[in-house]
Amino acid sequence: MQALVALDRALLRGCLTDRLQGKSLVRTAQATYDPSLGRGWAPQRRKIDHVPSPKLWVEMEFLDYSHNLWLVAASLSVSLVGAFTGFSLTRGIASQPIASRKLSVTLAAIALGGGIWSMHFVAMLGLQLPIPIYYDAMITLGSALIAILMVGGALLLLHFYPRSRARLTAAGVIIGLGIVAMHYLGMSGLQLCRAVYTPPGVIFALVAACGLSVAAIWVAYGQRRPRNILLGTMAFGLAVFVVHFAAILGTRFVTVPTVQEIGPVIGNEVLALGVLISSFVLCGAFLLTGVTFLAPAGSGAHGAAVGPSEPLAEPIEAAPLLHRIPYEQNGQTHFIDARDVAFLRAEGHYTLLYAGESKHFCTWSITEAERRLSPGPFLKVHRSYLVNPDHVAHFERRKDNGLCHFQLGGQDVTTPVSRSRLAVLREALGL
Prior knowledge:
Elements: H1 2-15, E1 25-28, E2 32-33, E3 41-42, E4 45-48, E5 66-67, H2 69-89, H3 98-125, E6 127-128, E7 134-136, H4 137-159, H5 165-187, E8 190-191, E9 193-197, H6 199-222, H7 226-249, E10 251-255, E11 265-267, H8 268-294, H9 300-306, H10 310-323, E12 324-329, E13 332-337, E14 343-347, E15 350-355, E16 358-362, H11 366-372, E17 379-382, E18 385-387, E19 394-397, E20 402-408, E21 411-417, H12 422-429
Antiparallel strand pairs: 1-4, 2-3, 5-6, 7-8, 7-11, 9-10, 12-13, 14-15, 14-18, 15-16, 17-18, 19-20, 20-21
């Protein structure tokens, strides 16, 4: 028995010189007592399922790695393209019907989440290790789904609820958590190579992701103007880029002897093909949204250049009506500058124009007024009211609706805002 104990101790000391592979150490003893042989000795394999001492981590051999700088630059470009596409798709959707708004939010979530995923794996293609790298296809696709769902949840919060500081911050935190979850889930799909993390590295990546994402959302959604969209694109794209490489900085890589896949295993070649396809889709969407971004809807000059027959007819008919509204007074028809009108109120089959101290009778119905003045400075905030946001003195939010206050002739005049139109008006007011 004493001989067996001494042999076990010698075996354990021999394990310390072996390479650590996962959480198991395997070593062949020189000789182990076999009861079936009486006093004889026979070779036998021994397996230690637990690391005997934390000092064994010192024996772990980390792999050296570097990055292809061209692919690093490409990953940043993909991140910026995805950010611009997503933010551009959500610009001005508050005025769309609910079904169209849902579709726009879905496409934006795919663009932003797909941009996060594509950036990560373009950067991983640029990771150069001394061993071949393989990925679990199921985990890799699951990481893309996580990014899209988290970003989609944040966009739903931003576009289907009144925006406040708390909601902007919450949306940024959700996106930051989505970036981190996508990164570490994607890294867990590595095969024949395992990522080893340090707590400070994980904490730094988490804080950086949430902080930078909150900053990007505040910039992009503080005011929905082209300048904010561009600045938000820069902030969001850099956030995804910085978080990835900050997390890689706190990561070490070791080899593992076996493949532990959930789904089929893919190599860098197949991954490169998938990333290339997603990048092509993002670039195509980027070009389409870029054209819309540079040439906003309602510009008659561009339409006239493409097809002079129909597009020319619309601006000629609508241009005068965008500036003047007819009204009746003393049996005569007069005109008033649309920019001087604070709001229009339905009066049966006609409308009343409120401008300063004056109130005028217009023969248009509220539906005809909406059609003739669109696109223009007026918003329909209620079935009986069209308001000019430039004349709103202040806005009052109530439980299920709101009120617009106007200062007309030294008096406070209010118009109701229905619940379904709150988001449209708040975006026009920059709230």
